[in-house]
Amino acid sequence: MTRRQLLSVAGALCASRLAAWATPPGTLMTESQLLARRRAFEAARRMAAAGWKIRDGLLHATLGAGAEKAVGVHLLAGVQYLFLVAWRPFGAEMGFQLLDDEGQQVAASFAGEESRLLGILHTPTASQRGFLHCQLPTLSPTGDAALLYVYR
C-alpha cells in the first residue's frame, strides 16, 4: 500500500469518527447533512495546511424556508477567525453574518470561489461574545447546513 493510499484510508476513518462525534448520541446525520459538513470541512482542511486550526461541530441542522439559527461563539482578542458555512441543496440561498451581544452586525459574509460555501473573516480587537446567524429566505427550499471555523 502506498503512502497516499494509507493517508486516504486514515482520513476516511477520521472523518467518520468526527461525524459520529459531532452528532448527538443515538441520532444519525442525513446524507444531505453529511455532504454539507464534508463541503465545509474540505475548505477548512485547506486552511489547516496553511497553519490554521479547525474547530468542528458548531452546527449541523436542517433549516426550513424562512428558518433562522444563531450559534454563540467566544471571540478572543487578536485571534483571526474564519467561519465557514456550507449547505445543501444547491438552489438554496443562505444569509450568514456575525452579530455582537446587542444583535448588531460585526462582520458580513463573503461567498467562496466554490458554490454553496460562505465565509466570515474576523479579527476582534477585544475579547467578546458573538453570534453566528444563519437564515434561509422564505422562498428557499428546505436545506441542511454545516457550520465550523478555523482560527490562528
List keywords for this structure.
four-stranded antiparallel sheet, Jelly Rolls, 152 residues, 9 strands, globular, alpha+beta, five-stranded antiparallel sheet
Question: What's the tally of helices?
Answer: 2
Oligomer: single chain
Q: In the CATH hierarchy, what is the architecture at level 2?
A: Sandwich
Q: Give the C-level CATH assignment.
A: Mainly Beta
Which term fits the overall shape? globular
- How many strands? 9
> For the residues shown, what is the average pLDDT?
77
What structural class do you assign from the helix and strand content? alpha+beta
**Terminal-residue CA separation:** 35 Å
Strand proportion: 35-45%
CATH topology title: Jelly Rolls
Overall tally of structural domains: 1
Largest sheet, strands/sense/barrel: 5 strands, antiparallel
Tell me the series of helices and strands, N- to C-terminal.
Answer: HHEEEEEEEEE
**Rg to the nearest angstrom?**
16 Å
Strand order of the largest sheet: 1-9-3-7-6
Query: Helix fraction?
Result: 25-40%
The stretches of 5 or more residues where confidence is low (pLDDT under 50) are: 13-23
